[in-house]
Structures are given as C-alpha cells and as structure tokens.
Amino acid sequence: MAEFSLPNDSYFLGFDSSTQSLKATVLDSNLNIIASELIHFDSDLPHYKTQDGVYRDPSNNGRIVSPTLMWIEALDLMFQKLSKSNLDFSKISAVSGSGQQHGSVYWKIGSSKILSSLDHKKPLLEQLENAFSIKESPIWMDCSTTAECRAIENAFGGGALELAKVTGSRAYERFTGPQIKKIFDHQPDIYNNTERISLVSSFMASLFIGAYAAIDHSDGAGMNLMDIKAKAWSKVALEATAPDLESKLGNLAPAYGVAGKIASYFVERYHFNKDCLVIQWSGDNPNSVAGLTLNIPGDLAISLGTSDTVFMITKDPNPGLEGHVFPSPVDAEGYMVMLCYKNGSLTREDVRNSYAEKSWDVFNKLLQQTQPLNGGKLGFYYKDHEILPPLPVGYHRYVIENFSGALDGMKEQEVKEFDPPSEVRGVIEGQFLSMRAHAERFGMPSPPKRIIATGGASANDSILNAIASIFGCDVYTVQRQDSASLGAAVRAAHGWLCNKKGGYLPISNMYMDKLEKTSLSCKLSVNAGDQELVSKYGALMKKRTEIENRLVQKLGRC
Question: Which end of the chain is more exposed for a tag (fewer CB within 10 A), N or C?
C-alpha cells in the first residue's frame, strides 16, 4: 500500500466555515488528529452582533444573512490561535475546507487584483474590507426567494421535476441560484458591479490561493444551476437566473482537484511551505460524507441534530421532488443523496417535555418499556414546518386496528392522543420509519450495508436500538461529532495523493486495513435487528406512507 501512503511527518489541515463557527482540524500522516481549534462567531467576534452567526431581517420576511467580513476576521483569529498552539505550519502538505452549503459571496469588480497582492504584514480583514459588492451574504437559512424558485422551475419544460432531474433538486429558497436571481431582479446595479460570485467554500479557498477558486462539483450541485450528470453549468438554469452568469461563476472542478498552491501571503506570514497544496473546498454535507467514511453504495449515515439528515451513497441516482443528489466528493463516479428533516432533536425534546417529565432518563425508560411496533400506533410529529414531507406544524396520531404485521386489511383510526409511553415510541418510530421510506424511494437497499449514526442523539442507546430494529442493519457511531472539519482534513490528504498520482484514487485506499487506528474509526454500537421484526416494520412503513401521502394531499405546502 506504499503508493497510497502519505509523507511521514506531514500534516493535513481542514477547516469548517459553518453557520455559527469556524473550526480547524489537523491530521498527521496516520490520519490522527494532532490539533483542533474553534472560533465561535457570536462570542469570539461579538462586535458583529450576530445571533447564532446570522442576521435575521425583520423588515424582509424570510431574509437571513451573515456578514462576509466576519468570516474573514474569523480566519485571521483562527491563525492567531493555531500559531499560539505552536503548530508547525511548514509541515502542512495540503489544506482543504468545508463551507456551509448554498451561502454566496459577491466580489466587486477589481477585487481579483486585491486578492493577488495581499500584504503579509497586514491581517486579511484590513485588506479585504472593500472587496465585496454586498457585505451581507445570503445563507442557507434564508427563505425569501419563493417567487424566484417558481420562475426557475417554470423555465424547464417539465417544471420542478425536470429541474430536479438536471440539477439534482427542485428549486429551494435556500439554494444559490434563486438567491442570485433575487439580487439581479431587485438590485441590478449590485449584480452588474460583481465580477465573481463564490460559494462560501470557494470564497474561503480563494483566500488561500490568492485568486478566485473554482466551485467544486459537490457544492455546485446545491445551487440549482449545475447539470449533475454532465458536471457542467446548465445553460437553461443559467439563463433563467441572470444574464452573463457563467462568467461570474467561473469554472467547475472535482472536489479532489487542486485549487492552487498556497498564496505567498501565508508562506510569508505563517511560514507555510511554498509547495503546500490547497485542495478544492466543498460544502459541509459533502465533507461530512468524507469524515464519516461513507464511500460504498449501501452505506447510510444518519445525523441526529436540531434537524436530522440522512446521507446515502449511490452509483445510479434518481433525483425527484424530494431530497437532493450531489456528485460525491470522494468518488469520481459516485453520487451522494441527502434527505433533510427539519423536525429533529427539538421535536423529540417537545415530546420528552410533554410526556416524559422533561427527562431523557424517563424518556428512555418509557421507550424501553413499550414493545417494538408500538402496538400499531403511528405518529406524525411536526413541531416546525417539515421539509420532507412538506407538511405544516401539527401532530397526527393513528391506531392500526388488528395490527398483525401484515399489510393486508390494515385499517387506521385517527386518535387525539396516545398514552405517554406510546407517545415516546411514536415519535422515535415515526421519524425513523419516515427516513427508511424516503431512503428506499431513492434506491437504498433494504437492509442497508451499515448505518453510521452521528450528532447529539447518537449517544442515546435506546434511539440506536430503534434504528437497528427499523432498518435491519448494524449501527455504528463515530469518535468525533465534528465530521465536516475532519472530513476536510481527510480530503486535503486525499487530494494530495490524487495530485501525486496524476488522477483520481479511491479515498478508502488511504485508510483500508488501518481505519481503527485513525481518528476516522467508528465502533459497532448495536447489532442488526431481528429480520422478522424488520419485515413487520416494512409493512407498518408502507401503511405510514399511505397516510403520509393523504396528509400531504390534504395539508401539504408547495
């Protein structure tokens, strides 16, 4: 395996520029973490007066932005922290990073000259203060572009479904294309004064190479602008969005490609090696796929957080009106599928507070004292407007009469409330039956090869047991929860190897046969559930899908 080995005594640096913070993770040549740092925007940069890293505009319904300069100052501050930790920057062979997906940065005409002539004696912030045509970047939380979404979908003959088939997703308010269209439609002077539009990921990469970095294929798929099969800009989508857009977006590139060598600014200011490579940055979700070592079709990851996210790997994507398909950041031929659920931990907490004495211990005891399948009780719990399925706030409960585990003859009756133990099992089984149903619609094998659980709730064994029973496969958990910055460091190493070999190499070759000795290792937490029980869950899932479809027809939001 020598051809896949990294140079001894070398480091690989990964960043994650997320909504609320900037993280850095440093790996050694054995893929073990040797350093990590965090800048929290609200507390470390309080003069921007952000709340959770963002500004919510009360005068413009749904408009949510972040100050672009805050991200730059965070990078200045991060390098101060890394310098104080005595990190030897000269040993870093490659840098890569993760950016919150969909967010966009608008460089004004003439800014490329500023980027290419940075003075190493001054901080970045001081030199880039006037480089942007808009100082507040639209981000993924923004939902003010519904009209623009419909206009872009209408430009495609088949509407939303045709747009999804081409770009991997129907039009979403948070996606970059609708955000760009809104700026062109309402602020044409600003659009015309913009020479380059970057994603957060390519914006940060641009700082490191001292020039405009390309947008990578994986993050580019979160814009409603890229043809995911051709891995090229879609002419129809570009024309539907804004004029002369391709020249402002620049080129696309594979995530494992080299963006450039590190800028002289970093060589002179922080003593990086002048041959240090900057590997294309990508989005936070693609980087999480790398950090979780998802690289085989049939692999599934479930991130359990404020919102829940399901990641899958496939060679044959079938984009539809739900979910998202992106080219894989770690496989030249593969794709990643992402399913997003807004009702995650906060909804579980709501049920805990109402039925389990506001205690996770009580919640877990109630979950354990109810039988799997919940006696045929099915719950739909939406504390917030749900993305998948598109349903408004509301809780809906049904009891399946004479439930025996077979689909034939199942009849449901709607009820107002369950007993507390059934409410607890109802929210857990409801969430994971929904995930299984939507994942199978996207071609997930049943059962999957394995599930890797991450996020706060992955520490809850009772929840992991429910996942194993519903999906019917082994469930693993990871050492570290910050998979995006870890994934970025892994991709830095992968990109370095690909560049050395002159082309793409499977990322798994870097850690094959030694995964358990690296910071990427995961442990088996729960064995696969009983297959007869899995089959009964399958029948219950089909019934749940029938009810869900009726709810969408009756109450669904477009």
Answer: C
Tell me the percentage of the chain whose pLDDT exceeds 70: 98
Instruction: Tell me the pLDDT tens digit for each residue of 389-446.
Output: 989 999 999 999 877 766 667 889 999 999 999 999 999 999 999 999 999 988 888 9
Question: Considering only CA atoms, which of 141, 142, 145, 131 is closest in space to residue 68?
Answer: 131
- CA 215, CA 249: separation in Å to the nearest integer? 8
The contacts of residue 188 (CB under 8 Å, 6+ apart) are: none
Vertex 91 angle, CA 277 and 520, to 5°? 80
Q: In the chain, what is the straight-line distance between the N-terminal and C-terminal CA atoms, in Å? A: 52
The predicted model gives 25-39 an average pLDDT of 97
CA 555 – CA 451 distance, rounded (Å): 32
Alpha-carbon torsion 507, 512, 518, 524, what sign? positive
CA distance 323 to 338: 6
Best CA proximity match to 389, nearest among 164, 545, 168: 545
Helices 461-471 and 531-555: crossing angle, nearest 10°?
90
In three-state secondary structure terms, 200 is helix
Count, in order, helices (H) and strands (E) of the chain: 20, 26
Q: Which pLDDT score is estimated for 248?
A: 98
Q: Which residues of 89-109 are buried (b: 16+ CB within 10 A; e: fewer)?
A: bebbbbbbbbbbbbbbbbbbe
Query: Which of residues 504 and 480 earns the better pLDDT score?
Result: 504
Cα separation, 102 vs 17, whole angstroms: 12
Which range is least confidently modeled, 101-115, 256-270, 516-530?
A: 516-530
Q: How far apart are CA 113 and CA 131, in angstroms?
A: 10
Phi-psi region at 405: left, alpha or beta (left = phi > 0; alpha = psi -120 to 50): left
Nearest Cα neighbor of 540 from 450, 436, 456 is 436
